[in-house]
Amino acid sequence: MEYLRIKQEPYCCVPACIQMILKRHGLPFASQEEIGIQLGLTVPKEKLHFFKNVKSEKEVDEEHGTKIQKEKYSLNSFFKTNNIPLIYEYCYFDDAEQAKAFLIENKSQDIIACFSYGTLWNTTHLGGHICLVEDIKDDTITLVDSEYTGVLGDVPRRETTIQKLCDAIKYHGKKNAAGFWLIKRQNA
Description:
Blueprint (H helix, E strand, L loop, with lengths): L12 H12 L7 H7 L36 H7 L4 E6 L4 H10 L4 E7 H5 L6 E10 L2 E5 L12 E5 H11 L6 E7 L3
Antiparallel strand pairs: 1-6, 2-3, 2-6, 3-4, 4-5
Helix pairs in contact: 1-2, 4-6
């Protein structure tokens, strides 16, 4: 399934992916900042100038970004509060064969992958990140990465193996909501 690709604001990979999903479903959507605030977005002080109303919190045990793993900031709370007819289901697989079966079975749904950025893309940044799953063929998965700017500043499709993605999911861990986020229409 192909998405209209939207570039994220700093620390807004979740809001950008939600915008892309809402656009695909023909549903209205707010700015990344407005979505992010409802999802518990915090940013470092040096990034506050990009926003009007986002808070800055000192990192303790949590990364900056959204806090969807907390009930009051969950995607289902966001969908319900905004009368959006979508539901979110968290699915964790660190086994590549189980992940592949899940991805193939749910290929027609919106799936977000949450993982350790550096582990997947071989960088020193080991913080969490999400991408939309756009396609799966054999053991290769195509992701839409709202953060990666490429040479021309676009939002590219990036390919990796399912095994490498599962390794990055495992590294980031369940406590950080790593895994797959299945988004589907209510009563679908």
